[in-house]
Amino acid sequence: MAKLTMVQALNQALLQEMKRDNTVVVLGEDVGKDGGVFRVTEGLLNTFGEQRVMDTPLAESAIVGTAIGMAINGIKPVAEIQFSGFAYYAYPQLEAHASRIRNRSRGRFTCPLVVRAPYGGGIRALEHHSESKEAIYAHTPGLKVVIPSTPYDAKGLLISAIRDPDPVIFLEPKRVYRAIKEEVPDELYTIPIGKANIIKEGADCTVVSWGAAMKTTKEAVEEIEQEGKSIELIDLRTISPFDEEAIIESVKKTGRLVIVHEAHKMLGLGAEISAIVNEKCILSLEAPIIRVTGYDVVFPFFELENEYLPSAKRVKDGITEVLAY
Fold it and tell me: Is the whole-model pTM more than 0.70?
């Protein structure tokens, strides 16, 4: 069992799943010869050839549209969009076709498609390279949305996404592509889509996060616990469908909830989580729910991106406020 970065874990997942299942193909801009902009697909072209690792034109709508056609005809495409901010050109294909095929055909057809995209800020990138717009996809019935936070989760969740019969938007937090290394099993394994990971149990407050924000949230939780508090930390892993049961059961136990995400606050997934907790276990709450999020502005250029992203201090302040209520 080797220690891998998220990039290496994703590459391993693709390599092993393509060896296991010859219907799995990879397509996207520069995924072949160059191995992808972040090198997630590096080496796959040499192993599988141009029939299964396909460089495409710079046309996101064409990439996803072609992948949908493949998917409903027995192929399992993994389409890469270089940055999630470029995926909006493909959204009509996802909303009007991929997400609706099962319903439109009354179950006669499914669309086993994976759309991979690096997402989120924190790497000093240009405009349209740092968005966290996962709520758009989560708001689209028929799409599943997965966001790993660690190398181990990234491999298991990507394999599950490839094997899933429905379209999966697989958002990869590029801020932690190479910032975390951990042991990842050499063999194939899966992590269920829709099941959260309770990273640690606690009694005083529930904290929920996902993606790159999880690394920051862990730092804040460790500081809080040094002060004698007990925090239950949940990594959502899957944005749609998300694990309501895990959150509700945790809040019933702790009575407090803090939600941390990088996306804008308004209509972000934190709002939905908050609404569901209020609907299903409001009498268990001992303090108002707090959301620590990005701001409701266009993601700033790199001089200000650290002011936009939730910091460990902001997360710690949010938890402290809830605990003190």
Answer: yes
